[in-house]
């Protein structure tokens, strides 16, 4: 990275890099990088852009200006930096540069991990990159694992490892102290204590839906039904549109998910799938679509609809938020006097009921959109009834008893 070789000071809105005499690069209040030239009668600035790309462009432009003004290369005119950057400022640069590479949700997740769990720790706070020790990181993550889930520990390790790897790539550290550290903190991936699926039993499911129909509006009930009768994820359900619905074939084509106020592609290619719908759910959807068209006409929109589950609070322009449905789940469970569940447990309910009804695990995998058959077996394997259940007694019956029964029933005795 070209800016690593220049000394910097902390300005009002971010770092200020000194490239040459009277030539600086700094960030303005809008997080835009600019080149500032203040030498003799020249007082100018040039806008170069945001993020890492903007900073890289600004440094290169400033180098060219400094060389032109001094007659010698800018990097030769300055002494090499004599300090290693601290973890806090370096991590913020790393996070800022990720905005153009990561999805919005990923960026927000990394920012949250840094702000809440990583940067406040004395292991990292304002510490020079080359002073951070492997044992310190291990202790910090081990402590985090006492109060947080394995998934959070894994994500925090991933962020720390990525930042230190970039520091190693930039020449600030000789090795990555977080490398291959997670296996010494958590169990192997297949053995980690992940949150167990907590599906409804069939009677509990029916009581849950009966209660929902009494206290929720039509769209909210249909959202719950789509998860429990079709196995869709909450985001996939909220993103449902009429164009993906085939009522004649009884199917829905999943192509999008809705989360944090925006539509995006599902998590894997197999998540973009065609899901078969039971006939009774197709009829519910048919009536729901008719009512949506009627409401559209009443609002003067000519009966045209797109979203299947628009939030009335947004004048039918936007789906329900995930947070709203999560809150709704708690209210329905409380009213139905059922153990508290989250929306994803409705998807678990669908899978377990299908498997316990002897549906093929391969078919359930396709319906659920799992990226591999192994995921279906790992999560729901203990709900899959044995294929030989009907012949279980015959297979395990003691041989003496089996022979006696065959003698009584299978061979005609002579008089």
From TrEMBL:
InterPro entries listed in its UniProt record: CB, DNA_brk_join_enz, Integrase-like_cat_sf, Integrase_catalytic, Integrase_recombinase_N, Integrase_SAM-like_N, Tyrosine_recombinase_XerCD
Keywords assigned: DNA integration, DNA recombination, DNA-binding
Membrane-spanning residues: none
GO MF annotation list: DNA binding
GO BP, sorted A to Z: DNA integration; DNA recombination
Keyword DNA-binding applies: yes
Domain Tyr recombinase positions: 195-393
Keyword Nucleus: no
Residue ranges of every copy of the Core-binding (CB) domain listed in the record: 85-168
Family: Belongs to the 'phage' integrase family.
Name of the protein in question: Integrase
Organism: Desulfatibacillum alkenivorans DSM 16219
């Amino acid at each position: 990275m070209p800016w690593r070789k220049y000394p910097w000071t902390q300005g009002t809105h971010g770092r200020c890099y000194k490239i040459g005499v009277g030539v600086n690069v700094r960030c303005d209040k809008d997080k835009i990088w600019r080149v500032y030239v203040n030498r003799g009668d020249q007082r100018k600035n040039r806008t170069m852009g945001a993020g890492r790309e903007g900073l890289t462009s600004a440094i290169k432009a400033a180098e060219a200006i400094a060389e032109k003004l001094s007659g010698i290369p800018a990097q030769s005119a300055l002494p090499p930096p004599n300090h290693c950057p601290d973890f806090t400022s370096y991590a913020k640069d790393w996070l800022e540069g990720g905005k153009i590479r990561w999805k919005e949700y990923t960026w927000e997740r990394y920012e949250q991990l840094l702000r809440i769990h990583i940067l406040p720790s004395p292991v990292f706070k304002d510490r020079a990159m080359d002073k951070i020790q492997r044992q310190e990181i291990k202790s910090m993550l081990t402590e985090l694992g006492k109060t947080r889930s394995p998934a959070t520990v894994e994500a925090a390790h991933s962020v720390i490892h990525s930042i230190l790897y970039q520091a190693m790539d930039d020449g600030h550290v000789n090795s990555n102290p977080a490398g291959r550290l997670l296996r010494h903190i958590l169990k192997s991936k297949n053995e980690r204590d992940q949150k167990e699926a907590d599906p409804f039993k069939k009677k509990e499911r029916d009581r849950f839906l009966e209660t929902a129909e009494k206290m929720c509006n039509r769209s909210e009930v249909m959202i719950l039904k789509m998860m429990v009768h079709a196995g869709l994820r909450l985001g996939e359900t909220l993103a449902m549109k009429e164009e993906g619905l085939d009522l004649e074939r009884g199917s829905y084509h999943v192509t999008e998910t809705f989360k944090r106020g925006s539509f995006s592609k599902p998590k894997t290619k197999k998540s973009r799938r065609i899901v078969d719908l039971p006939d009774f759910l197709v009829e519910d959807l048919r009536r729901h679509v008719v009512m949506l068209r009627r409401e559209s006409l009443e609002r003067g929109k000519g009966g045209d609809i797109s979203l299947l589950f628009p939030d009335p609070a947004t004048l039918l322009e936007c789906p329900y938020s995930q947070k709203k449905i999560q809150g709704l789940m708690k209210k329905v469970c409380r009213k139905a006097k059922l153990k508290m569940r989250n929306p994803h447990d409705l998807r678990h309910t669908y899978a377990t009921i299908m498997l316990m009804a002897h549906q093929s695990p391969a078919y359930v995998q396709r319906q659920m959109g799992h990226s591999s058959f192994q995921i279906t077996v790992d999560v729901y394997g203990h709900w899959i009834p044995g294929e030989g259940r009907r012949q279980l007694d015959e297979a395990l019956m003691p041989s003496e008893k089996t022979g006696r029964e065959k003698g009584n029933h299978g061979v005609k005795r002579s008089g």
